[in-house]
Amino acid sequence: MLDLATRSTLGRIVILMGLLTLRGEAAFEVGAQLPRPDLTPGGLVQPKKFALPPVKLDPATRVVVFFYSAAWCDPCQRIGAALRTTYPRFRAGLPGLQIISYAVDDSPGARADYLRDQRYPWPALGPTMVEQPLWPTVIPGGTPQFQAFAVGADHLTAITSAGPADAIMEAAMGFLQPDPE
Asked: Of these four, 32, 133, 142, 149, which has the most CB atoms within 10 Å of its CB?
């Protein structure tokens, strides 16, 4: 459970993200199933200073939220900076929820440079993965946007359309809540 200070900080970040994000169309339609990127070679990486080594999702992860961003997107930079400061507390309080950066820069090289430069503490979709047929290189509605996916044994299922952070994070957290009986 998150303490009051962490909830307050996350609330301010969600408000900031909501103000900075654009309402967009679906990058992946609700219900669309995608292969889990951590089970695909080069699919999920953890940005480091000079490298993008592959990583796996934590077994506790039940929902991933794609953070659609790009190097040229100033609002993406501000949202990323705000998320970076609260990410450790966010992960400790919500271990079932993981953010994944999805860079939509023009080329695999530009995507790789962006991911290495940002050094986000959360994983990212590998820069060459975006070139594969299932993974779009253009997100309708532009960046920044977010989209939530339920994590299955071998796939992801879109549980929201792409949209502003506040609505997507609320839906993702709601998905993690146990069903009342």
From this structure: 149
